[in-house]
Amino acid sequence: xxxxxxxxxxxxxxxxxxxxxxxxxxxxxxxxxxxxxxxxxxxxxxxxxxxxxxxxxxxxxxxxxxxxxxxxxxxxxxxxxxxxxxxxxxxxxxxxxxxxxxxxxxxxxxxxxxxxxxxxxxxxxxxxxxxxxxxxxxxxxxxxxxxxxxxxxxxxxxxxxxxxxxxxxxxxxxxxxxxxxxxxxxxxxxxxxxxxxxxxxxxxxxxxxxxxxxxxxxxxxxxxxxxxxxxxxxxxxxxxxxxxxxxxxxxxxxxxxxxxxxxxxxxxxxxxxxxxxxxx
Length: 280
Prior knowledge:
Layout: E1 6-11, E2 14-19, H1 30-45, E3 51-55, H2 81-107, E4 112-116, E5 119-121, H3 123-129, E6 133-137, E7 141-143, H4 157-161, H5 167-176, E8 179-181, H6 182-187, E9 193-195, H7 198-213, H8 217-232, H9 235-249, H10 252-263
Parallel strand pairs: 2-3, 3-4, 4-6, 5-7, 6-9
Antiparallel strand pairs: 1-2, 7-8
Helix pairs in contact: 1-2, 8-9
């Protein structure tokens, strides 16, 4: 299928989703917000890959939300309190829909890895913070751009970055709108590794994705579920949940295959996770 904002390739159990509008700095136009969840949900629901890599093209990863997304040709000036209330309700629903675009990365059963070059600005920070792992080139930088245009970031930056970097660093970036260079982003734990070039980064990220894809897909999916659950709950709740999960999801066949493959000095051959049921 052809997309306006993305190219998609799946090989060796790894799905590669690439932003493809470098001449526009990969800004997030209206099509972007519909296409990304369509692509990711299709991969997830139909078990088309065991890992997802997101990368970009051109000088910058993404300049963030395109200004055209802010404009609603159907929104007139509200003249009554009732009309204003309806517009506020519609706006809240619109923001929730934008949030859902990136929630799909968090919700996908397979890990998502993102390779970032140049600017990762505004909505791109929301996007990358929803991924499992982040990698960057030396010239990459992050900017919570919303404060610089008189608004509060609302599509996922704060709920997720609170769990990824120290509070002091997050507050400084959020209140000032300063750029966070890649080297400093690694120091505070936002990115896993920094590379000299885009090519070197993408090669390394794809190798990591293939390494993930070589493991038991069900065990990897379970690990992602547990990490996300532990992030959002107490230690006691997370321990209880992993016990329940393991009771229902532990797969002796995968463990036996792992030991057999090791003994035979070969790569393990695991079954894919099952597609999700679409119909009753």
